[in-house]
Amino acid sequence: LGLVILQAVLGMWTVTFKLLPTIVLAHLLGGLSIAGLLWWLALSNKPPAQMLVQRTRSLRPWAILGLFILIGQIILGAWTSTNYAALACTNFPLCNGSLTPPMDWKAAFNFFAPIGPNYEGGHLAMDARVAIQMAHRYGAFLTGAYLIPFSLCLMTIREYTGFRKIGLMILLLICLQFMLGIFNVVFTLPIQSAVAHNGVAAILLLSMITVIFKLYDTRWG
Length: 221
Description:
By secondary structure, the chain is an all-alpha fold. It has helices spanning 2-16, 21-44, 54-57, 60-82, 105-108, 126-155, 161-186, 191-216. The longest helix has 30 residues, at 126-155.
């Protein structure tokens, strides 16, 4: 209830503060938080299928770490979008023909932009936008480097078929998300690819929430 009320306020502020990046970022994260909580409620209404073994319970801290890494990457993606930095790099894997393009990290992650200007189209210089885009790329590699082995680990659990299916799903979603991210750059941000990129991020978030819910489900007895 609190999140829904906050989301309504953030929606108003998005217009009032003329697409202020921090407000738009909070608005997106609020929507994903509501989706995550609704999914948790839906999972809690389903009966548990199998008894977890002790070896599976040892995955709890690794699943939580994976969730935080994924959330961090979603935040970087949202910051890329709100600052209109998605097209700051015109090619992949290079950025504007270089592995180390000029970047202004200080300006890129200034979360205290002045209130008043209209931020439609973005106000950051290109070097700052490139830094945001590169941070999102670095985060993508970090997220993949963690979640791909984690998904393979889930797929090796023979005692619980549900984890094997979720692991395969996470693996396929990560691969799809990488492809969509590259398409966004190479084909100059087509709307279908951009929307799909956001959608896959949301499904990945719900998949990780599912893993954590099952690992901490106290209804196993």
